[in-house]
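Re-running the complex after MR caught last week's input typo. The corrected sequence lines follow. Everything else is unchanged.
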Amino acid sequence: MEESESASDKPRPWQSYHTVYTNAKAGMDGVDKEKVQRVVYEMSKGSKYFENEERKEALIRQKIEHMRARAAKLSAADLSHYQKVADKRILELDSTRDLSRIWLHVDMDAFYAAVETLSNPSLKGKPMAVGSMSMISTANYEARKFGVRAAMPGFIARELCPDLIFVPTDFKKYTYYSDLTRKVFWDYDPNFMAASLDEAYLDITKVCEERSITGAEIAEELRSRVHEETGLTCSVGVAPNRLLAKVCSDINKPNGQFVLPNDRMAVMTFISSLPIRKIGGIGKVTENILKGVFGISTCEEMLQKGSFLCALFSHSSSDFFLSVGLGLGGTDTPEARFRKSISSERTFSATEDAALLYQKLADIAEMLSADMQKEGLSGRTLTLKLKTASFEVRTRAVTLQKYISSSDDIVKHASNLLKAELPISLRLIGLRVSHFNEDKGGVSGDPTQKTLTTFFKSVDASRRTGNDQRSLGSDLSDLHFISEKETAISLDNNETCHHEFGDPFERKHLSDMDDKNCISSINACEMEKIDELSSNKTAAMVNTADVKERTTKSPKRDLSRVSEDDSSVQREPEDSNPDRLNKEPSTSGNEEFFSLNQMEMLFWVDDYKCSLCGAELPSSFVEERQEHSDFHLAERLQEEESGTGLSSLIPRLRIVPEDCSGSQNRRKKHKSSPKQGMHLPIDSFFTKKSSGQ
DNA sequence: GCCAGAAGGACCC
DNA sequence: ACCCAGGGTCCTTCTATC
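Corrected-run output:
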């Protein structure tokens, strides 16, 4: 730490203060980068936040030094060994290349800001940011010219752009427009993967084939359709895999597109000069390490330095890096995945008043519990997160014998954790619950059963090759230096067991988790319901014909009503009483849906996904929803007639996705992309946009 | 040697 | 004047157990 400062710290200290916004992957074209850096530096200097950043940077510098030293110590023999390892691995990875799919990544341009401008045209042409003085979510292009960007605190943004207009976030609005765009996406790929409110991946291989049309033409068409439907513009990237498609969508943004042909040479050429930071999953730290230790700044150099990467990084990390160098990425439509945790945290002005801290803790527990109830979740591991006045983050966890979800339980255990830290000055408290009961794959809850994590790990080996951003993301953390011994050669113990992962049962549920919540809500509640059903609930089975008739005739009474019922159901996750379902209806006062609900258990999770098969249909898809529910009803009728009753419910659920909703069969459930949507507040998914119906 | 937990981080939107 | 979010995922390391 001593050396770097003295030498380079001449006249412009801000140059060494790299933050996310001055160093981002999104192009900051006409921006006076130096000025931005200076302002950010000036405004941050001396703050606790700044000091903490410096502390972290110092740690990274140490890491870099440490790795450099290790790299320097590699003997010629070592290097030749690792060169072989790398060469072999590169060949293996390359052999997994799949150029048969055409992926399209759509990214709405400055989404929140664009939506706000749509609803308030007077904002047009003026620099504007969505967010608050403490943090902004996104900025329009006028504001970006000043260096203003997402994740920048508002007070700094205002300094950069004094005329900046701040608009508070309104997720209802964004969800509404997001649904409109998804309706368009649906037409091109019913299994599209929503990555967030404003991003999605579509496998357009089939459409291209069916219409014998190029990816570029689809992109063109999709963009104009999105514009027609929403009045918003988007940018699109078309490439043989998701990782590349994502990079491509950024190239001609805003309102543009870029197509990378499904050709090995084209891919290699493209990737060769591509800065590593453009790759999803390679952030500031990884970039610094790769650059600082190995001098790698383009993807191509990943291959050139393959021996070093294999020598100094863990398997998963080196595999990832090499994949990037080869331009490989996800080409399959991944299985759905469960939500693993749920949390709530709040920042406040730092205090060391214990009573106050306990109060904050109780408030957060309350919020978290409410969110959990909404989704019918309960978990055994409770993690307390603390951020001290000096921005240091700590976590403290306990794993309990029983699953908890009530505010009281949460507070009780969280207080114990907090007590142990006590004399302390905090600026943030957070609570997270994980280790859900469904983790075990549902039904049994047998703790010895393979967990999802295990499942994904085993799949990991194969996935490694075609990782998409998710894997990327994780890989970075490997940077954490693998201890030297493990650096060795263990390149092949990956080939583990893909098959043993659990029973198909759990996977069926996975299907619906594309966006954060849906997932879990289904799991928790549905599991119970299914159990109930399969055991005895036949009573709930009502007159099918009756139900069918009503649904068919009153499409307008659309299912959004059902979702109301459903939410009330979910609100009582603790209540495993089988009568619950029977009671609900009276509360809702909607007998028709009551029947439907009881009988089919079909409702739109989070007003978005079919509780039965996981199909995704925003509430604006009124007709599609009607069709969809009709499908399930017909299916049910058929079963009734053929004598197959509820007893077959469970197996049936697993199969349904295969062909439900007619043409749009969703055998692959689009799970969300890796990261998808986690940044959105959960609430945004509950709030339904008032449009649909 | 493997497994579970706990703690700390990187990254994404 | 305002002074750096919140929700999630995955990975690695370390330890205590079995």
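None of the earlier attempt is carried over here. The first strand of chain A starts at residue 103 and ends at 108. The two ends of chain A are 61 Å apart (CA to CA).
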